[in-house]
Amino acid sequence: MKKMKKIILFAFILSGITKFSVAQTADAPPADVQKVIDAESNFNKLVERKGIKGGFLAVADPEGIVFKPDAVNITEFYNNIDKQSGSLKWKPNFARISANGDLAFTAGPYTYQNGKSDDDKVYGDYVSLWRNNGEGQLKLLIDLGIQHPEPDKEINTDFRNPEPEKKVAPSKDPFGPKKIILATDELFNHSLTISTLGTYKEFLSPEGHFYFPGFEPMTGQDQVMKFVDNEGITINAKTVNAGRSTSNDLAYTYGKARIRKGSIVSNYNYVRIWELDKNHKWNILLEAFSAIENE
């Protein structure tokens, strides 16, 4: 328990570093979340018109990754396949954009069909992370999906604009902000080895979303902790990479995890979206795991 308290204290130290590094507020208004919703809608139309391969190639960030099952560059992956058959449709129901508009994400249900009958349909949820290319366009940086049974009902949309006071001038230090979010993710992973429930209680946003293969998305700290407890989940994870918005209000990390669920141990990739709360503490707004073959 003492060790967990030390970890919590260190988390606040990291958030304190973030607090005092914020730049002066910029004059331009903060970004509109509708921009990323529109980008996702246009992506969907491109896939419908050009096919899955053509759609992904059209929107990919040069450093963009997909998990197939390991992280691979989007452009390299789709350039090395003839085509990807079937139809893919999706619709966002959860979205945010950073105040400076340089980082955004959407998440929501998808349907993949490689045939003509309803029996050929595959259901799941996706998470897409988008990055501004410096010319005002959002490009796909990370794409991840989970599969689960056909959902019983639609989830209400949660699209929210950033708070105006979070609009700031870009940081002059290109490496410091990344180091902080990397350290935060590594701290989260370390604390998971001490107490899974204690870690989610400390780091997960009260409105955090949780995506796990085979299950419909869960929302809220209480629901996620109940799932983790009921399924007997323990997690050993390792950070691979991270990034953060210049407005210091939205960030992402991804890596690999080995998860014990009851008596079954499996390997996963994970993606986490972080947001800075009013107390300048980084919390997980979204976490998604995609299964990979056991080694």
Task: Count structural domains.
Answer: 2
Report low-confidence residues grouped into runs of 5 or more: 19-26
Rg: 19 Å
Mean pLDDT: 88
What is the CATH fold-level name of the largest domain? Nuclear Transport Factor 2, Chain: A
Could you estimate the helical fraction of the residues in percent? 25-40%
Instruction: Characterize the biggest β-sheet.
Output: 8 strands, mixed
Note the run of SSEs as H and E: HHEEHEEEEEEHHEEHEEEE
What is the overall number of helices?
6
The dominant shape is globular
* Oligomeric state of this protein: single chain
- What is the CATH domain class of the largest domain? Alpha Beta
SSE class: alpha+beta
Give the amount of beta strand, in percent: 35-45%
How does CATH name the architecture of the largest domain? Roll
Distance between the termini: 33 Å
Could you give the count of β-strands? 14
In short:
With about 300 residues, this protein is an alpha+beta fold.
Question: Keywords for this structure?
Answer:
Nuclear Transport Factor 2, Chain: A; 6 helices; globular; single chain; alpha+beta; 295 residues; 29% helix; 2 domains; six-stranded mixed β-sheet
